[in-house]
Amino acid sequence: MSRPIVYLTQEVHKDVIKLIRSRFTLRIIRKSGPRSMESLRSAARKADALVPMLQDRIDQTVLSAGKRLKIVANYAVGVNNIDLSAAKNAGIVVTNTPGVLTDATADLTMALILGLMRRLSDGERLARSGRWKGWGPTELLGLHVTGKTIGIIGMGRIGQAVAERMKGFRARILYWQRTRLSHEEEGRLLAEYVPIDRLLAKADIVTLHTPLTGNTHHLIGKKEISRMKRSAILVNTSRGPVVDEKALIEALAKRRIWGAGLDVYEEEPKIPLRLRRLPNVLLLPHLGSATEETRIAMGMLVFENLTAFFSGQEPLTRVV
Ligand code: DGY
User: Fold this and answer.
1) For residue 97, which atom of ligand 1 is closest to its CA?
2) Rounded (10°) CA dihedral 37, 302, 94, 42
3) Of all atoms in ligand 1, which is nearest to the CA of residue 239?
4) pLDDT of 33-54, one tens digit each?
5) What's the gap in Å between 76 CA and the centre of ligand 1?
6) Using an 8 Å Cβ cutoff, are 26 and 6 in contact?
7) Which residue lies with its CA nearest to atom 2 of ligand 1?
């Protein structure tokens, strides 16, 4: 039997490429840079399996481009880039990469919290500039992190991993999501379940870990930001559209909140100029899962999902 044809939309880590090549016929749409919808459709026509990156929109037109496509193995945990109901209707299996990027994303969330509150990027810029005049009692004063109240919106794997880390900072941990955790889980995480409005009003750090769905689009907008403390920060390592970016920029410009640490944006890779010019933000280019170990682990999980599927078994992390 001939080997299934797997299309990667973009080149991934060489170890993963090697592994996929050992079992499948591998094709890559583009080494790097954006893929057009036409190139996605064209690949979908020829592929048994498609491995998209999180920015590739796998809509109805891609899913129905040909008769050959059987599985879309997303190289990401978030599946907001895929039309899941169209995939289900077409009988195309969709998998993602949960678990393997939890720690990397939680670590990066901590980096944003610490980096923003302790003004690391201002400090680093000053240190590099050659203009530093020496230690000053009022220079680059940030916010204390230890002992603060964190409000975690979305207490799935990544939210819980952030809670675990914040225990080390003796934080009070509030959380909100649609479904409450069990007593045991709350006890383990030392986390208190509160309504979202209360979380927004009480937290010094509001951090977002919810998937992007119809329900969470613009979950944080003008009204929600106006409930936050003026001294609070907002951190987003989930998906850009969970926050109304315009409302956030407005609030930051008016110092309605102290600052924002962002890894994700509404229209990646575009980051609005106004946002880039604000002094009270720490901005990263979607680095949540960007460690060598994590990106390899994501690729391994994609490979295992493909291998299971084409061996007639249930993929490990099937979404639909
Ligand atoms: C994901 O997998 O959804 C992450 O955002 C990747 O960094």
Assistant:
1) 2
2) 30
3) 5
4) 889 999 999 999 999 999 999 9
5) 5
6) yes
7) 76
